[in-house]
Amino acid sequence: MAINLKVNGSSRSVPAEPDTPLLYVLRNDLQLNGAKFGCGLAQCGACTVMVDGKPVRSCVTQIGTLGGAEITTIEGLGTAQKPHPLQKAFIDEQAVQCGYCINGMIMSAKELLDRKARVSEADVRDALAGNLCRCGTHNRIVAAILRAAKEMGRT
Amino acid sequence: MNAPTLTRRGFNKGAGGIVLAFSLLPAEVLAQAAAARLPGSLNNNRLLDAWIRINADGTATVHTGKVELGQGILTALWQIAAEELDLPLSRVTITQVDTSRSPNEGFTFGSQSIENSGVALRLAGAEARAILIELAAKKLGADAAALKVADGVISAPDGKRVTYGELAAEANLKREASAKVRPKPASEHKIVGKSIPRLDIPAKVMGGAAYVQDLRLPGMLHGRVVRPPRYGAKLESVDEAAARRVPGVVAVVRDGSFLGVIAEREENAVKARAALIAGAKWSGGDTLPDPAKLYEHLRSRPAQTTVSSEKKATVLASAKVIEATYNKPYMSHASIGPSCAVAQFADGRYTVWSHGQGMFPLRVDLAKALKVPPPQIRCIHFEGSGCYGHNGADDAALDAALLARAAPGRPVRVQWMRDDEFAWSPYGCAMSMKVKGALDGGKIVHWDYELWSNTHSMRPANPAGNNLLASWHVADAQKHGSVTNVPIQFGGGSDRNAVPLYDFPSQRVVNHLVGEMPLRASALRTLGAYSNVWASECFMDELALAAGADPVAFRLAHMTDPRAKAVIEKVAAMANWKPGEKGSLSRGRGIAFSKYKNLACYVAVIADVEIDRASGKVRVREAWAATDAGLVINPDGLKNQIEGGIVQTASWTLLEEVRFDRNGIRTRDWSGYPILAMPDVPKVSVELINRPNERPLGSGEGSQGPAGAAIGNAVAHATGKRLRDLPLDAARVKAALG
Q1: Exposure b/e, A64-84, CB count within 10 A at least 16 = b
Q2: Cβ atoms of B721 and B737 closer than 8 Å
Q3: Which chain B positions have a beta carbon within 8 Å of A108's beta carbon?
Q4: What is the pLDDT of residue B2?
Q5: Nearest-angstrom CA–CA distance, B386 and B651
Q6: β-strands B221-226, B412-415: how paired?
Q7: What range does the domain containing B726 cover?
Q8: What digits encode the pLDDT tens for the residues B19-40?
Q9: Is residue B709 within 8 Å of residue B534, measured between CB atoms?
Q10: How far apart are CA B405 and CA B102, in angstroms?
Q11: Within this chain, do residues B174 and B44 fall inside the same structural domain, yes or no?
Q12: CA geometry: angle at A133 spanning A131 and A134, to 5°?
């Protein structure tokens, strides 16, 4: 069967069952690489996307539950030519080692910056507590988010 | 193909370049007698065009046999090549490893890429530039010594000029490197030594295709595998029909106890895997040691015992002797993304895309398992999720190839599930270390160190067997390779950093390499060094305490290497170390040092910890590191590695231990293997001592040994109790506090 989803502002029809995890549809049907499979258990955060402005774990979110919700992935934030301040800050701070967790870090940070007018370092660390990083890039990630927050007038 | 590219320009842009067919010679030809030893990896890949080609459009294409693992190595090697060629970075492309075109540099491991591939590119680049200058001198009728090179343009004093592109057709790089052309001195470096932004980062923050997980080939199918519930279990029967009822299932593949499924859609492969698990009956299997007695078990097993170092001097009976036993559990790579590979089988040939650390060695074991000659397999590297050693990447490559055989012509992408990764990726070895020290007059007069460990090297291409997981499970099963230790002159394996760098008049270091391997183990970042530095540097503090000495002064008093002393003194200054400072639960402080492998970079670390009395939880508040890696290629990249190593090590040291019981592995997901999370990550400061006239030293793994021991020493300083078993988790610390 086909299900309609609203992804990054466009309406998309995908040939998948309602119990299909959103992650597989994003990656395989819509060819969006940003959200990653990490655990399939909502434990690591690598698959984080926004649904109606809230961060969700796409690996455990069934597409049949989404209705007409607005889904935003990291591809919806910016482009190489016009990056979102968060994406630009991650490049400026070289806040990546392997980078597999970075999608989740940026999406969780986006939600924090959307939600709070002023953010501190402690806010950033708390907001990202559920996003695992294995290379030990945490401090650079925090620095990048604070740089973006400053850029956006949120510090 | 929607394939990622790490290069600034397409690989084929230089068509018409001077190298038409790539010319790697077979090993037998290279092994001819009398060939002079060439530096770094030039020795085994001796033709200049194995490394560098100059294209007709004035660009250069650079090949390396080392792979990007998120450590930034391609960027550093790209800098080295551009520097020596006198080309801007924008006109140099560096390619990913592909067995059809790249030099064979074995594995990317042991912090050796700059030392081997970097040296080769430095010399090959300098020689290629000299060849171009020589041609230009003839063409311009000028003296070669009078020519100037800038951005790939060679100019004579009279203003006549010729470009690399114009010379490309005549320049012959299909010749053996002489390694006689001197590379630039550090004082002339314009690109090396600069923090050039990494090539791989933009795609990683934009949702670009950056990983093998992101490969999406036309007609690609999705595969999943089903592993035995315990080591050694045999598959008796399986309800294949239940799996086949899942829509879009293309094949269920069963070969002995190897079981997998391929489907048109990924979610259906996952469902079919669940159906296979539910309908599989297994028998037998191995019983694991009692985890409560793991270290006694390890020390009681038969072992190959070798003396790694021995130095004899008379020790007076009056010397004060103390001894202690340190232990380290099995640890997991715990990469955020499970292992993944894509394979295609067509016309009797395999193409395999893998995030393994060595495409050529992988091909050797794939060929054994698939029973085809190696040239019928092409392995192409694509980055995966963080790689810290020999994880499941190679195994996933064989899984994908075995499944692809059931769907000829169609690429099959296999991604392990989280439980596959935790239960089947090889672990870092459990180790036990007994240390004895004798003190006389406040100085160490004898050091006695024994360690027990499995081998840290069960990588592919061991001549005695096959080290790919599925090869042990198929009906015509193969045996794993022999147990070997990395020789000490190459940095050692289980005994890596077991020989102290301090000057003790008398010492004995003994390595017990235990053959029986109850849990699957292999190379995890630093091999034995993390454990050995943990035990040795914690014990140095025990001896300092017994001698009534300050830990920094005590280390310096036993050290003569000036570069070692410099990093210890530097980090003490950075952290404002005060001798005699009293520790408390709100602040304990510790120092540790190592020269990685006793061959590579020097790192000293100081850590500050605080301890919650109620729970026993240790928090590393802050850490400082001083590093000497000789000539620094990319300072920011080096700092990123040292910082990351410290944070990862804080996690290893405070939290990590693979859980198992007599029946098998219990760590199956992140709840069974917690790692350090964002709020608990320490602040880290790194300073580099740049020595531009010293050769570059490997550093990707340099901070881990000293970071672990510094934390251990800080916990002892805070609590007054010496904890010798890792990890220093809340339960263990609470028990010690009483």
Answers
A1: eebeebebbbbbbbbeeeebb
A2: yes
A3: none
A4: 35
A5: 15
A6: parallel
A7: 427-456+493-737
A8: 323 333 334 333 444 578 999 9
A9: yes
A10: 26
A11: yes
A12: 150
Would you call B656 helix, strand, or coil by DSSP? Answer: coil
> Could you give the CA distance from residue B328 to residue B292 in angstroms, rounded to a whole number?
13
Q: How many domains does chain A have?
A: 2
Residue of A19, A81, A134, A139 to mutate for B, most B C-beta atoms under 10 A: A134
Cβ atoms < 10 Å from Cβ of A118? 9
Place of tokens 């060679």: B154
- Reported ipTM exceeds the 0.90 cut: yes
Show residues of chain B in contact with A20, CB under 8 Å.
265, 267
Structure tokens at B546: 């017994």
Whether B92 and B192 have beta carbons less than 8 Å apart is answered as no
| Largest Cα span, chain B | 85
- Pairwise CA distance, residues A57 & B652, whole Å: 26
Chain B residues within 8 A of A44 when measuring between CB atoms: 336, 670
Concatenating the DSSP letter of every residue in B124-164 gives HHHHHHHHHHHHHHHHHTS-GGG-EEETTEEE-TTS-EEEH
What is the CATH classification number for the domain harbouring A27? 3.10.20.30
pTM of the model: 0.93
Closest partner residue to B207 (CB to CB) among A38, A103, A124 is A103
Say yes or no: B440 and B414 in one domain. no
pLDDT single digits (tens) B91-125: 999 999 999 999 999 998 877 888 899 999 999 99
CA distance B627 to B688: 5
Q: Are residues A57 and A89 in the same domain?
A: no
3-state secondary structure B96-111: CCECCCCCCCCCCCCC
Shared-domain flag, residues B717 and B576: yes
Per-residue pLDDT of chain A (155 residues; tens, 9 = 90+): 799 999 999 999 999 999 999 999 999 999 999 999 999 999 999 999 999 999 999 999 999 999 999 999 999 999 999 999 999 999 999 999 999 999 999 999 999 999 999 999 999 999 999 999 999 999 999 999 999 999 999 98
How many domains would you assign to chain B?
3
Residue B341 lies in a domain: yes
- Residue B305's Cα: distance from chain center in Å? 26
Which among A32, A94, A103 has the least Cβ separation from residue B636?
A: A94
Interface contacts A/B by beta carbons within 8 Å: 180
Chain B residues inside the 8 Å CB shell of A143 = none
Tokens of B142: 């000028």
Interval B259-276 mean pLDDT: 98
Q: Hey, are the CB atoms on A31 and B2 less than 8 Å from each other?
A: yes
Based on the domain organization, do A45 and A100 belong to the same domain? no
For residue B224, give the nearest of B163, B278, B176, B268 by alpha carbon. Answer: B268
Which among A20, A38, A126 has CB closest to B336?
A: A38
If asked whether residues B407 and B439 sit together in one domain, one would say no
Other residues' Cβ atoms within 10 Å of the Cβ of residue B335? 24
B414 shares a domain with B400: yes
Helices marked H in B181-246: 201-206, 240-244
Q: Which residues pair with B130 in a beta bridge?
A: none
If asked whether residues B443 and B415 sit together in one domain, one would say no
Give me the DSSP letters along B371-414.
Answer: TS-GGGEEEEE---S---BS-SHHHHHHHHHHHHTTSTTS-EEE
A7 and A71 belong to one structural domain: yes
Last residue of a domain, one of B188, B205, B222: B205
User: Are residues B625 and B560 both part of a single domain?
Assistant: yes
Would strands B377-381 and B349-354 be described as parallel, antiparallel, or unpaired? parallel
Pick from B316, B309, B366, B389: which is nearest to B700 by CA?
B389
Task: Write down which residue in A44, A76, A108 finishes a domain.
Answer: A76
Rounded CA gap, B460 and B161, in Å?
A: 50
Whether residue A66 is found in the same domain as residue A98: no
